[in-house]
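Reopening this one. Same input as before:
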Amino acid sequence: MNICHHTQAALASSFSVLQQHLKLEIGYQDVPAITLAALFDDSTCRQVLQDFATRIHAKNQRCATSLFVKYWATFWMVPFLYCQAASLPFVKWHYSAFVVELADCWHWDRRLQLADSASYCCQIMSLPALEAMLRQFNDLLQQLARVGRVPYALLWENVAVRVVQFYRSLAQQELSNDMYLRLQQQQHLLKTRTAQSFNLPENPFLKLWSNWHPEFNTYMRQKCCFYFQLEDAAQELCRNCPLQLKKTTEIKS
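Same output, byte for byte:
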C-alpha cells in the first residue's frame, strides 16, 4: 500500500480496536477483486449470489440473498458505527471499498476484506456521513432484492437486526461518556429517519426497536430470513423469528 506511515498506523490502530471489541478481523485485498460496486452489474451480482448459495448450501436464491445481506451487513455497517462513536479513523464508506469475494476455506468467518484503494480515504466519520451511508444502502439493497428476487423490506430488516444487536451488545459494556453520547445520537438518527428515506412504508429500525418480546428476550422480526432452511440450521428457527410466535401459539393450544 502506497500510503503514508501516519495513515497506516492510524488505520492499524483502529483495526486492532475493532478486532478486540467486535471480534472482527479486517485486512486488505491487494489484487483485483469483486467489490460491492460490481454488484450493480446484474450478471456479476447473480454470479456472486449463486456462489454464496453454493457455499452455504442454500435451497434457493431467495434464501441465499437474504442470508448474503444478513451476513455482510455486520461488516458494511457495524465497524463504521463503532468508529464514529469512538472517534476512530476508518476508511470512507463507498461501494468500491468492500470486497465480497470469499476465501476458499471460508465458513461464516468474521473477516472484512477491503479493497487496497480504500485506505486512501482514511477519516473520522461524522454523523452526516452516517446519513449518507444509509442513503447508499437504498440503491444497494434494491439491486440485491431485484436480482435475488426477495422483498426489499426483508433486506433492510436484516440490516436493522445486525445494527440493533450491535447497540444492545454495547449497552452492556462500560463506555466513555463521549462514546455513549455519540451512540445515542446515532440511534436518534436511525429512529427519526422517515419511512420515505428508506423507500419503505415504515422505518425498519424503529419498527424493530418497537417490537420487544419479553418472553424471548429479544426484538422480534416481522419477516423470516430463511436461515432455518440451511442444512447447518437443522430446521431450527432464529430466536427472533416471527415463526417462533406461531410455533409457541401452536404448542400452547
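So the earlier flakiness isn't reproducible anymore. For the record, The beta strands are 25-29, 89-90, 111-115, 123-124, 212-213, 218-219.
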